Amino acid sequence: MNLQALTVETTPISDISQLILLLDQHEPLLWMRRAQGLAGIGTALRLEFSGATRMTDAAVAWRDVVAAATVTDPLNRTGTGLLAFGAFAFDDSSAEKSVLIVPSVIVGREDGVCWVTRIWATGETPPEIPLELHPLGPEYRLSLLPGALTPDGYREAVAEGIRRIAAHDLSKVVLARDLVGHLPAESDVRRSISELALGYPDCWTYAVDGLVGSSPETLIRADHGEVNARVLAGTMSRGTDAAADTAAALALATSPKDGDEHEFAVQSVLASLRPHTSHITTSEIPFTLKLPNLWHLATDVEGTLSDGSTSLDLIAALHPTAAVAGTPTDKALALIREVEPFDRGRYAGPVGWVGADGDGEWAIALRCAQVSPSGDVTAYAGCGIVLDSEPERELAETRMKFRPVVEAFG
Ligand SMILES: C=C(O[C@H]1C=CC=C(C(=O)O)[C@@H]1O)C(=O)O
């Protein structure tokens, strides 16, 4: 690939508390959790990938970008220097492009340290440092309505999944449905991003190439030879009072159906990471993770990298986990293609960032919507189906999972 060489310069700055207000209203780039993270402005380089090799191609292209770059980074911290935001399609045959985007300006904030990184084509003029805050545009309301798969259609799809599992075709499949709407012209999507970040501060709030959401699931984080992941699968609604809420968490923790659903997801992550790690551990038993809209069953995984893989190599190895596809993977993907009458696009694919040393943070793009340049919005939510699943309950679970996006846009 013939790549434009980049010059990169990171400078410390005084505290900037409002990453979202720095963003461009039309092309916001954001990776944030608990008010810390990375805001990207403008585009220095955009790389697109598609097909079965989209992630391994991105890993190769990124090594070339890094090799050709001249970087001045006195801070040398996680998230400083050259980096790209990325979002990858779920399916090998998706019509949606997978992207790596290197912004012209990145503003970062972590542990009270703030910095700005400027990136430009070598030999050209460096970009300005636009540290102005842009107030949010007018309020808007958007109704998201059933898309290609209606609630009835979803019940039928789940019933078909259960039939196939009962016939021993596969053990688990994750089936999703879609909601669609249209944003009024000139809507400032940063409003919805702010709502997501405020409502779900412990999740990864992201915006990459029109994909916006707040994900609780860390696909992989690679930092100086250590890797970690948070595997989620198994869901219960929150209780209406404290006692009911505790009972809901307990019911989730002891549900054999959710336990099975969870174990498939953990095993898929461990199997993908083992060849790349010398040492790998998981939290002893799954724990219940409380989110504002629901409870999840969670397992944290930690390991030590043994083969110099970058975070892009790791997402290529991990995707798709059984939290978003199923077990076995090939059978689950075939059934998803058969019964979901829509392209998942980047929903359930990896979203995050990669740095020059290959370290990075990637979530699974859940609780999200894809916003097209013309304002079309498509949101997605899915559920893990196992033998004991019930179509009506799974439909109710998708409603819980849509809540972050429905409220952020409504
Ligand atoms: C597929 C989704 O969630 C996954 C992650 C956590 C819990 C899940 C579940 O309980 O089904 C799913 O595996 C989604 O939010 O669209």
Radius of gyration: 21 Å
Report the span from N to C terminus. Answer: 43 Å
CATH class: Alpha Beta
SSE class? alpha+beta
Outline type:
globular
Give the low-confidence spans: none
- Strand-residue fraction? 25-35%
Instruction: Report mean pLDDT, rounded to a whole number.
Output: 96
The largest sheet, given as strand count, sense and whether it forms a barrel, is: 13 strands, mixed
CATH topology: Anthranilate synthase
Q: How many structurally independent domains?
A: 1
Corresponding CATH architecture: 4-Layer Sandwich
Helix content: 25-40%
Fourth-tier CATH superfamily name: Anthranilate synthase
**Bound ions, cofactors and other small molecules, one mention each:** the ligand C=C(O[C@H]1C=CC=C(C(=O)O)[C@@H]1O)C(=O)O
- How many helical elements? 9
The total beta strand count reads 23
Protein name: isochorismate synthase
Family: Belongs to the isochorismate synthase family.
EC number: 5.4.4.2
Enzyme class: isomerase
Question: Which properties best describe this structure?
Answer:
single chain, 410 residues, alpha+beta, Anthranilate synthase, 13-stranded mixed sheet, ten-stranded antiparallel sheet, binds the ligand C=C(O[C@H]1C=CC=C(C(=O)O)[C@@H]1O)C(=O)O, ADC_synthase, isomerase
Give a short summary of the structure:
By secondary structure, the protein is an alpha+beta fold.
